[in-house]
């Protein structure tokens, strides 16, 4: 489960949404170009930022730019340019491509804001910015416009999922699967299986997704390997998780989600030294809050404080990881609750409720914590962290037997479950009854 260990479980909203061709990796940042082009944009033609970017061994971007130049009054051409830029952002973790995409979308909207391709691009950007109610509205328009095309149903399901409406998400995904069983629909079906406690079913569907993938779109396949590796990791299987990360990195070198998975797999195996290198590479490419905090876990005090400062500066746009960090470490309880509730303003899924529950435990709000963890476990998701949070909530509420049972279940799911919380609970409870199993 991606409780800020690999934030935004449905990053595949974008990764496989359109069957885009794979693109080569470029290491150089686009920040300088963005700043220069934005300063000149008022005097330049429509989408000057996106069209002014010079592709570096990026044929898909070059082709999309050429399409706009051939058809400068076509909303669809601008939308396709935006979609290609978003694909490139996923591959490189370079946020500048998002600005190029937004520039192209603005041009498309000026021509025809309701064209189907424009709705797709707008929906994707709404997801990027965690505006899930807006994404749901845009996806609903897309479904009404082209009901027999699965993309709208997939995007609608993604929005429902982030908003915690799992029945509606299932309905939308099933419709997409009926229309076209492919990597996109198999991947989403796998996640729903996992949410409902069926790990084996989820893994089988992810294998189908990988088989349905195309070498022309390696990033989508790489994402599926990351998903598969995360399930292995969450079951305590460090070796298989590491192999999945390596497969993803073979498909897309320096792929950010795979670098993080590689680091997590090494940490699961107790090898912090090997974890540090891929994690530092990931943070250098794209300093996400959860990755900064994971690096802080294996750093000395001075570096840890610096990383925490960077994370706090980014928390307004991505509050859940820092809420989880503070709650796990039992520090800044009120700040943890504040951040968790900020997350709930945008998302209502099990991850948001789970972190909220742990933060409420630390703040001494036991009844509220019980309600929150109940929401997090409502689907029967078999995630060890959820049961650790339940164990802490039960212990704090004076239910020792409930805490023992929840901790035992967590360790059954993953014998290597969060060592920080598992050790805390084992200290609070009877060690003789709760001896941690040996890692397989």
Q: Could you explain the architecture of this structure?
A:
There is one protein chain. 71% of the residues lie in helices and 0% in strands. It is mainly alpha-helical. Among the domains are: 1-130, no CATH class; 181-286, Tetratricopeptide repeat domain (Serine Threonine Protein Phosphatase 5, Tetratricopeptide repeat, Alpha Horseshoe), CATH 1.25.40.10. The longest helix has 18 residues, at 75-92. It is globular, with a radius of gyration of 22 Å. The two termini are 20 Å apart. Residues 1-30, 33-44 and 433-440 have low confidence and may be disordered.
Oligomer: single chain
Strand content: under 5%
How many strand segments?
A: 0
- Which structural category fits the helices and strands? mainly alpha
Q: Indicate the mean pLDDT.
A: 89
Largest sheet: none
Kindly state the percentage of residues in helix. over 70%
N-to-C order of helices and strands = HHHHHHHHHHHHHHHHHHHHHHHHH
Instruction: Describe the global form.
Output: globular
Total helical segments: 25
Structure, briefly:
By secondary structure, the chain is mainly alpha-helical. It has 25 helices and no strands. The two termini are 20 Å apart.
Key attributes of the depicted protein:
440 residues, mainly alpha, Serine Threonine Protein Phosphatase 5, Tetratricopeptide repeat, disordered N terminus, disordered C terminus
Q: Which SSEs are present, and which pair or pack?
A:
Blueprint: H1 12-15, H2 31-40, H3 48-52, H4 59-70, H5 75-92, H6 96-112, H7 116-128, H8 132-145, H9 150-162, H10 166-179, H11 183-195, H12 199-212, H13 218-234, H14 238-251, H15 256-268, H16 272-285, H17 289-297, H18 301-314, H19 319-328, H20 333-346, H21 350-362, H22 366-376, H23 384-396, H24 400-413, H25 419-428
Helix pairs in contact: 4-5, 5-6, 5-7, 6-7, 7-8, 7-9, 8-9, 9-10, 10-11, 11-12, 12-13, 13-14, 13-15, 14-15, 15-16, 16-17, 17-18, 19-20, 19-21, 20-21, 21-22, 21-23, 22-23, 23-24, 23-25
């Amino acid at each position: 489960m991606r409780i800020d260990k690999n934030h935004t479980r449905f990053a595949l909203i974008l990764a496989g949404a359109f069957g885009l061709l794979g693109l080569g990796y470029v290491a150089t940042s686009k920040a300088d170009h963005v700043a220069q082009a934005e300063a000149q944009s008022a005097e330049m033609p429509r989408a000057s930022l996106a069209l002014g970017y010079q592709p570096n061994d990026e044929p898909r971007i070059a082709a999309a730019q050429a399409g706009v130049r051939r058809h400068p009054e076509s909303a669809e051409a601008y939308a396709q340019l935006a979609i290609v830029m978003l694909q490139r952002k996923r591959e490189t973790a370079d946020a500048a491509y998002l600005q190029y995409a937004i520039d192209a979308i603005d041009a498309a909207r000026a021509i025809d804001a309701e064209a189907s391709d424009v709705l797709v691009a707008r929906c994707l950007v709404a997801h990027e910015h965690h505006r899930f109610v807006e994404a749901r509205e845009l996806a609903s328009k897309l479904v009404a416009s082209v009901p027999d095309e699965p993309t709208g149903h997939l995007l609608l399901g993604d929005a429902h999922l982030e908003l915690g409406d799992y029945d509606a998400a299932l309905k939308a995904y099933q419709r997409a699967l009926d229309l076209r069983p492919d990597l996109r629909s198999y991947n989403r079906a796998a996640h729903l299986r996992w949410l409902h406690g069926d790990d084996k079913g989820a893994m089988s569907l992810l294998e189908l997704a990988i088989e349905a993938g195309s070498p022309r779109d390696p990033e989508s396949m790489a994402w599926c390997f990351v998903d598969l590796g995360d399930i292995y990791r969450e079951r305590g299987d460090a070796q298989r998780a590491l192999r999945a990360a390596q497969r993803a990195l073979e498909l897309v070198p320096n792929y950010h989600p795979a670098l993080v998975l590689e680091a997590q797999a090494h940490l699961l195996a107790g090898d912090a030294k090997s974890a540090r290198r891929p994690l530092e590479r990931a943070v250098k490419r794209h300093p996400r809050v959860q990755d900064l905090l994971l690096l802080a876990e294996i750093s000395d005090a001075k570096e840890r404080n610096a990383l925490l400062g960077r994370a706090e500066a980014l928390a307004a746009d991505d509050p859940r990881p820092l809420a989880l960090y503070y709650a796990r470490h039992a520090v800044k309880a009120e700040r943890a609750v504040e951040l968790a509730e900020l997350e709930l303003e945008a998302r209502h899924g099990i991850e948001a409720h789970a972190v909220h529950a742990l933060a409420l435990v630390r703040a001494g709000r036991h009844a509220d914590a019980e309600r929150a963890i109940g929401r997090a476990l409502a689907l029967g998701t078999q995630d060890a962290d959820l049961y650790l949070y339940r164990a802490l909530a039960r212990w704090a509420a004076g239910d020792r037997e409930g805490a023992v049972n929840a901790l035992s279940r967590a360790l059954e799911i993953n014998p290597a479950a969060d060592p920080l919380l598992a050790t805390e609970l084992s200290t609070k409870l009877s060690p003789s009854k709760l001896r941690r199993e040996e890692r397989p």
